[in-house]
Design brief:
The protein has about 160 residues and is of the alpha+beta class. The chain has one domain (about 1-160). It is built from four helices and four strands; from the N terminus they run H-E-E-H-H-E-E-H. The chain has a four-stranded antiparallel β-sheet. A hairpin with a 4-residue loop joins strand 1 and strand 2 (about 45-55). Helix 2 packs antiparallel against helix 3 and helix 3 runs antiparallel to helix 4 (about 140-160). The longest helix is centred in the N-terminal third of the chain and has 31 residues, at about 1-30.
């Protein structure tokens, strides 16, 4: 019983902190970066720039109709996040796997909140590694999703 309470508390803590940081940084981006020129750090390696992404990953699907967008970018992900959360709390998983999925869920909820409230996701970070090699514009929810997937893969790698 104590283990189950701890697991639920950890799940809720990761979600609360993750979603809170994501939404706070997006609000700061709205206030400080919207309608402003990009801000360059570390000789242009790290760039802060405001972008409203109405599509999915890297803007894919921006041209879809509103009905199809609502299904694929809001309802379907919400359904999967609910199922994954329920399964994650019901079963007993190792720490890496559990933490990875908690981060993935927190990131998913952070971006879904934007889609539900605004109709788009606020992205504001960009990394320019070398000429021609760069990331898309992203946010903390995207970082949580990426880190979560990496932890789940690391779990499977360690299991082999």
């Amino acid at each position: 019983m104590k283990r189950k309470i701890f697991k639920i508390a950890l799940f809720l803590s990761i979600l609360t902190v993750g979603i809170g940081c994501d939404q706070t940084t997006k609000e700061i981006a709205r206030e400080q970066l919207a309608y402003q020129a990009p801000i360059y750090y570390m000789e242009g390696l790290f760039i802060l720039t405001y972008y409203e992404n109405s599509g999915a990953f890297l803007g894919m699907g921006e041209q879809l109709s509103p009905t199809i967008k609502m299904f694929f970018l809001l309802l379907l992900p919400l359904f999967f996040l609910f199922i994954i959360s329920f399964h994650l709390l019901k079963s007993n998983y190792p720490a890496l796997y559990f933490t990875g999925f908690c981060l993935l869920i927190a990131g998913g909820i952070g971006n879904l909140m934007d889609r539900f409230l605004d109709g788009f996701v606020v992205d504001f970070m960009h990394i320019q590694l070398i000429d021609g090699i760069k990331t898309g514009v992203f946010n903390f929810a995207d970082v949580y999703i990426t880190l979560g997937v990496m932890l789940v893969f690391l779990h499977f790698y360690k299991e082999k």
